[in-house]
Every structure is written in C-alpha cells, then in structure tokens.
C-alpha cells in the first residue's frame, strides 16, 4: 500500500529531506511573517501581567504563571521547603589510616574536598526565600536590583573541585535490570542482594545506609578486588550525599556507578559543571508551588549566599585560611527569621548590599578560571541546563548591560553534540565586546538596564498588603503608594519611647499614657507615616481618644501630649520623692534617707489605736 503523506495524498516516491538552502529559505519566510496578537490568553495571565510586582513583558519569564512567586502575589503561601542535606552522614564513613588506598583514589578523583567542606546545618527559611526568586528561563535569581546566579567560578572557589574535563553523559535512563547488573559487576554483590536492594528502593537506586553497612569495614589488608569495590561504593556514597543529592533523601542512583568503572579515569570528569547543572535543575523544580522539597548540594547554595550577602546572613569562621575551600570560611547556622521576614528583607535589598567579587583575597591560591566565561549548556547525565554569564556580568567585575534573550536547552538525546560543544569551550566563551567594560564601582550597570529589568522581571515577592504589621481588616483600604515596613515602624516607636524615657520621672501620667498610645498605634500600623508623630506636640491633651481597635486605618492618633520640657511640676505630695530625681546619674549617689514625719507618726497612731481596741 502506498504511503500516505501529511496532505492526504498517496505517493510512491521516497520522502526527500530538504536541503540546507531550502531550510534557510523557510526560516527567512518564517521570520518575515508578521506576528499576530494573541487573543486566547487566559484570565490568570492577564492578572499577572497587570500585577505591580509581576513581569509586564512575558517575553522572558514565559512560565511565570506556574511560579511560586506568582502564587504568593495572589495571596497563597507556601511553608519553608524541606531540605535534603547529608552533611552529617558523611561523618559515618571515615577514611582513616587503615583505608589509605581508598583515600588515594578519592583524592585523585578531585572529590576529596567534599568530605570536609560539607555543611551539617542548612537554614530552611533562607534557602526557601532564595529559591522563590529563582527563574528557570534565565537560570538566575531575580533580585530587586538585577539578576545573580551561581557561576562556575563560584563552584571552583567554594568547593575546590574540577570544573574542566569530560561532561558526565548517559545515553538513556537506567533500567532496574541494568542497575542490578552494574551492582554485581562493579560492587561484587550477588544477584539476590542487588535485586532485593533495588526492589526496596522501588527504582534503579541503592540506599546510602546499605553502602555503608556492606563496604565501610573493608581496609587496606583486604584483597585488591574488595578494595576496588569499596572505593566505588565510597565514591557513590560521596556523590549521593553531596553533588547529586536527590529528593529521595535516602538513596542514590546506580547510574552514577558507571562513572567509577575505570578508577584511573575518575579525575577526568568536570564534576563542578555537573554539580551546577544538577543544582540548577533542583532549584527549577522547587519553584513550582506544589513542590515541598529541595535537593542538590545545599552546601554550595548556602555558601554562595554567605559569600555574596555577608552582612545579612553569614557567620565567619576566624580559623579559616585561604588555601581551604571557601565553604569552610563560614559557620553554618539556622537563620532565626521567619520566611515572611526574609522575603521582605530580600525585597529591600539594594546593589550596595551585595559583595559582587568575594574571592579577591582567594585569587592567590585559586586563580580565576577562564571557563567561567563559557556561554552555553552544562549537563549532568540527562539533565541539561543553560549557563548565562552575560546576565550576571557584575559578578565578574564588569558593567551589566541588557543581555540577549536566554536560549532554551537542547534535547538530552543530543548529548554527543553537547559534549563536543563543551570540549571546545574556548571557542564558546564571551568575547571582550560581550563582556563590556570593567566596573568603576561594584554593582554598576548601564542607565537603561533597570528600566528594562523592571519590565521583564518580578522584583518584589511579598505583596505590600501581606507584609508584616498590616492587619487583615485594613488591607482593603491600603493605599497603593504605601511602602512602610515593620523595621521603619519599629524605629519610629523606639525614637518615641527613648524621648519619653529621657524625660525622667517628673512627668504626668497622661504624658506616659499618650506616649504608649502613640507607640502602640505606630507598631500596629494604625498611624500615618509622618515625621511629626515622632516628636511630641505642644497642643493640650484630648480626652476623646478612640481605641486603636476602633480607630480607622492610617488615622493619626487624636491624643496629643505635652513635651517633657514644658511639663509643670506635679503638686506637692504627702510623701515627697527622694531628692535625686535623675534616673541615670553620671556618678554614684548615696541612697536617700528613710522618710520621716507623716508616715512614721501615722504608723504609731494606727498601732496605738489597735492597742486601745484590744
């Protein structure tokens, strides 16, 4: 039967592939064809395009309607992500002097720094807040002042693992039967043990605990085959706990075992590039609202935040020396702030708050790698992610210009082309014209960059009507221009209370009540943002003050109290206060004498009266 073509006609002639000139002609015709406006946009996209914090132009962030930041802007919230961190598990399998042969191979592979630089603690609110700013189309963090990302230079400086070499490639996903065969061949297990383990994991994976239990007891006195088996098992456990930690949280894919087949070639891989591609994919997955977990090498992400935002999050280790990986420079700790407060802190970030070039002191020990200027795709097996240094020129000390549109990564089945592209990376680095000029000051950008960035990005994650200090009843009457935050209200209230405390004790009760009432109004957000409320007024007090609960939103308090300087002295008391009225004397003052007179005589009179009654 003759084959049927797409147009419905039958033809017996074989299908002819178009020539190169025909393909170019089709592309030119497609580019000349005018673009027609779309009328089939759904309601969600129109709302997001008009949102004050959302992208106005969807040419870059095409999938923003599925992003967690879009859901947060529309009023939905997501709890901090559950983190997959195996920093403590690495200490369960130590390579002591009795396992020196295994350690030599690990050191030759270039992965030995991972044993010591992995953080045991990871901050859930901090990493979740940065994950909400990750955009999959650009593989960058979108912050209020521009884009930032983890570069190959960051990976090399923070982890000290190789970022040059062969790409990690897999031709196709590994099946369970193939995984069992690899376990038998490369780890020396039996068919029954391999099948039982993969069945328990319900995937072509093995548990990290199973690797430790079966191979951690092998020492240098064992046979050569057993040492090779233990070395492969240790390397598989190492990359499963660090570079390729997935959301299973307990297992590692057997597919990585193929990389350790020839132990003499373990050091020829670009482990840092594969780690970065895997981290990009984990961040991309976590930007979906329904995802509740974050994988990848979280030490890399957390140390990157410490390096570039040292004044906000970091806690340096004073015993660090520059010959060590930069991940050891910081003491990991849990940020005490909530996720909502960290969102607001990131919303207020400015370019001057960033350390754009944190590795200046580290260059003597670890020079800048030229491959960090590579512009293309990086991969880890079947994971392919674009790498755009032209979008973060400020991290390289250059003036940020408007970057070209990001390119979509090719299909993973074209792995051979990607490997060849990576092997000739010197032909695909940014040229000097694309890098631009050096910065005159840190974080410099061209004049038109921020106007372009404001149009295509989502700069603010936390919407104004959901920021801390705003009540639910007042959201409907919130002015659109309001930009007050909890920190500014706290500062105003502290200035007011400090002014009251400095007035001393000779102040009326109405004055104290008025000061506390206005401080309460400021902290609850029921006070209008005005500098006049920070200084007491000279008007007389009013006795018709509505309570903060019934006062309308942003209505200034009607109670006005006199300043401390114009307070009249209180009337004489039966029991006058001590002579020293200064609550904070500059020099020690002798304690006042006990009161005499009226109080003493009254006491005697009462006692004598009681005696007469008895």
Note down, in words, how this protein is organized.
This protein is 35% helix and 5% strand. It is mainly α and 614 residues long. The protein has a 3-stranded antiparallel beta sheet with strand order 2-3-4, with no helix packed on it. A two-stranded parallel ribbon has the order 1-7. A two-stranded antiparallel sheet has the order 5-6.
Structure described in brief:
The chain is mostly helical. The protein has helices at residues 20-32, 43-50, 68-73, 100-109, 113-117, 124-131, 152-159, 176-187, 191-201, 208-215, 224-241, 271-286, 298-308, 310-313, 339-347, 415-423, 432-435, 449-456, 486-501, 509-523, 598-613; strands at 82-83, 134-135, 140-143, 146-148, 205-207, 251-253, 293-294, 376-380, 383-387.
Topology:
Layout: H1 20-32, H2 43-50, H3 68-73, E1 82-83, H4 100-109, H5 113-117, H6 124-131, E2 134-135, E3 140-143, E4 146-148, H7 152-159, H8 176-187, H9 191-201, E5 205-207, H10 208-215, H11 224-241, E6 251-253, H12 271-286, E7 293-294, H13 298-308, H14 310-313, H15 339-347, E8 376-380, E9 383-387, H16 415-423, H17 432-435, H18 449-456, H19 486-501, H20 509-523, H21 598-613
Parallel strand pairs: 1-7
Antiparallel strand pairs: 2-3, 3-4, 5-6, 8-9
Strand content: under 5%
Number of strands: 9
Percent helix, as a range, is: 25-40%
Helical stretch tally = 21
Which structural class matches the secondary elements? mainly alpha
Summarize the main sheet.
3 strands, antiparallel
N to C succession of SSEs = HHHEHHHEEEHHHEHHEHEHHHEEHHHHHH
Strand order of the largest sheet: 2-3-4
Rounded radius of gyration (Å): 34 Å
Shape: globular
**Chain-averaged pLDDT:** 78
For the termini, the CA-CA separation is 131 Å
Task: List the uncertain runs.
Answer: 1-14, 27-52, 470-485, 528-592, 594-614
């Amino acid at each position: 039967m003759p084959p049927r073509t797409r147009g419905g006609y039958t033809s017996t002639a074989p299908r002819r592939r178009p020539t190169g000139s025909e393909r170019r002609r089709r592309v030119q015709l497609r580019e000349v064809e005018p673009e027609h406006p779309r009328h089939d946009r759904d309601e969600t996209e129109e709302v997001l395009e008009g949102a004050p914090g959302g992208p106005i132009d969807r040419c870059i962030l095409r999938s923003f309607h599925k992003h967690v930041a879009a859901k947060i802007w529309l009023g939905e919230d997501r709890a901090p992500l559950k983190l997959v961190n195996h920093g403590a598990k690495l200490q369960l399998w130590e390579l002591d002097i009795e396992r020196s042969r295994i350690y030599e191979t690990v050191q030759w592979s270039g992965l030995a720094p991972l044993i010591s630089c992995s953080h045991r603690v990871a901050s859930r609110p901090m990493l979740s807040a940065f994950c909400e700013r990750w955009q999959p189309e650009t593989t960058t963090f979108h912050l209020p002042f521009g884009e930032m990302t983890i570069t190959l230079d960051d990976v090399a400086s923070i982890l000290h693992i190789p970022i040059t070499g062969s790409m990690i490639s897999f031709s196709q996903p590994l099946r369970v039967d193939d995984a069992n065969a690899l376990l038998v061949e490369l780890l020396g297990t039996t068919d029954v043990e391999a099948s039982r383990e993969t069945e328990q994991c319900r995937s072509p994976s093995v548990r990290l605990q199973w690797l430790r239990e079966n191979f951690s007891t092998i020492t240098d006195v064992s046979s050569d085959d057993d040492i090779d088996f233990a070395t492969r098992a240790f390397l598989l456990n190492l990359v499963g706990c660090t570079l390729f930690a997935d959301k299973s949280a307990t297992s590692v894919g057997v597919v990585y075992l193929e990389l350790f087949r020839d132990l003499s070639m373990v050091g020829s891989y670009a482990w840092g590039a594969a780690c970065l591609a895997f981290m990009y994919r984990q961040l991309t997955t976590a930007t979906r609202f329904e995802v509740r977990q974050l994988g990848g090498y979280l030490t890399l992400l957390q140390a990157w935040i410490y390096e570039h935002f040292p004044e906000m999050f970091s806690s340096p280790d004073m015993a660090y020396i520059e010959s060590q990986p930069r991940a050891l420079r910081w003491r990991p700790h849990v940020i005490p702030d909530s996720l909502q407060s960290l969102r607001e802190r990131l919303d207020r970030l400015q370019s001057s708050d960033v350390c754009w070039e944190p590795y200046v002191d580290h260059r003597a020990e670890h020079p800048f790698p030229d491959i960090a200027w590579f512009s293309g795709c990086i991969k880890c097996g079947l994971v392919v992610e674009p790498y755009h240094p032209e979008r973060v020129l400020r991290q390289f000390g250059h003036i940020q210009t408007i970057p070209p549109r990001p390119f979509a990564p090719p299909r993973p089945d074209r792995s051979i082309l990607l490997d060849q592209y990576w092997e000739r990376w010197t032909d695909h680095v940014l040229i000097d014209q694309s890098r631009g000029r050096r910065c005159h000051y840190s974080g410099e950008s061209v004049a038109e960059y921020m106007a372009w960035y404001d149009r295509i990005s989502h700069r603010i994650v936390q919407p104004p009507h959901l920021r801390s200090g705003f009540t639910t009843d007042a959201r409907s009457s919130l002015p659109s221009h309001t930009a007050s935050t909890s920190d500014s209200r706290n500062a105003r209230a502290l200035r007011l209370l400090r002014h009251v405390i400095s007035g001393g004790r000779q102040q009326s009760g109405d004055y104290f009540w008025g000061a506390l009432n206005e401080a309460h109004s400021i902290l609850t957000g029921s006070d209008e943002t005005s500098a006049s409320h920070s200084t007491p007024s000279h008007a007389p007090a009013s006795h018709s003050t509505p309570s903060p609960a019934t006062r309308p939103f942003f209505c200034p308090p009607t109670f006005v109290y006199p300043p401390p300087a114009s307070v009249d002295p209180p009337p004489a008391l039966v029991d006058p206060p001590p002579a020293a009225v200064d609550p904070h004397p500059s020099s020690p003052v002798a304690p006042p004498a006990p009161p005499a007179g009226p109080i003493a005589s009254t006491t005697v009179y009462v006692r004598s009266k009681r005696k007469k009654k008895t």
